[in-house]
Amino acid sequence: MPACSAPGKLILFGEHAVVFGQPALSTAIDLRAEVYVRPHTEWLADGQSLDAPRYAYVKAAVEKAGAPRPLWIEVRSAIPEGSGLGSSAAVTVSTLGAVRRMRGTFEVRAIARDAFEVELGVQGRASPIDTTTATAGGAILALPTPEKGVLWSFERGDRQWHLHHRLLPPITFVVGFTGVSAPTGPLVAKVRELVDAKPEARSWIEEIGAITLDGLRALQAKDFVAAGELMTRNHALLNALGVGHPSLDRLVAAARPTSYGVKLTGAGGGGSMVALTDRPEATAKAITAAGGRPFLVTAEPKGVVGLG
Ligand code: PMV
Q1: What is the pLDDT of residues 154-199, one digit of tens each?
Q2: Looking at domain 172-298, what is its CATH homologous superfamily?
Q3: Is the model's pLDDT at 308 over the cut of 80?
Q4: Chain Cα centroid distance, residue 244
Q5: Which residue's CA is the closest to the ligand 1 atom numbered 5?
Q6: Of the listed 30, 46, 51, 130, which one is catalytic?
Q7: 172-298 has the same fold as 3-167
Q8: DSSP SS3 for 245
Q9: For residue 300, which of 133, 145, 163 has the smallest C-alpha distance?
Q10: Probe target for ligand 1 pocket from 125, 184, 187, 264, with the most ligand atoms within 8 Å of CB
Q11: What tens digit of pLDDT does each residue of 40-59 get?
Q12: Is 130 a catalytic residue?
């Protein structure tokens, strides 16, 4: 049965600002989704209708991949849904990969492009950082202008994203899932409205872009004190943009005493926070005590791969 797997992701700096074309840094993580497909008499995902809202990305992906006849689809994912850890991107990329394997058209760059278009279609507005991270693995830097070794580039209107691999030192991040799932589309739209209404918000978006580049340099230099301070500032700016949530603030406050820095990761409005810490067990314990679900994650070099 043709199948593919793809990793989840953690945005380290720059979420939301990247939708406006600012730099962002993410890393693939060692939680993966797997999608299996085989021809069938009707369209089914995990035995259910593809029209169920939770299969919106799967449905859009099989349409995009041009599956010639109905499929039986199975989704197995270790990435908690609605957690900000890139579950929808990993499932989208795996579905595209599995259908392309079935058709003999597996091609990584085309999968990255199609996955970005699927996210755009389902979410309304999006950047290609999640889908590129799920496709290419490793640490990904999105930039408004291309640098040497660019993986691929996408544009939408007046925004351009040039996606690059970057090397980060091995780091164990502690993620805390609030248990509150918030869809990305409305949060992205909310930030757009704020930026249109409030000139100051535009400067916050630009500051997040600058923080991303400083943050990358700090992480690469293993200057975790500086990287942590930048994460804390990035978090404050995301709160100012209106994508914070009381459940996030609780976990951020709980993780802070044992961490270099803590911020929300992904779209916010609930979802997850990420802590940079050299005491991962203590930070995870503090997150649990504050009512969150901790995950210790490490960088994952592998992007989309065929299974079997
Ligand atoms: O929470 P997620 O995995 O949907 O991450 C969204 C990241 C945003 O920057 C908010 C949106 C995007 O498309 O880049």
Answers
A1: 999 999 999 999 999 999 999 999 999 888 889 999 999 999 999 9
A2: GHMP kinase, C-terminal domain (3.30.70.890)
A3: no
A4: 17
A5: 266
A6: 130
A7: no
A8: coil
A9: 133
A10: 184
A11: 999 999 999 999 999 999 99
A12: yes
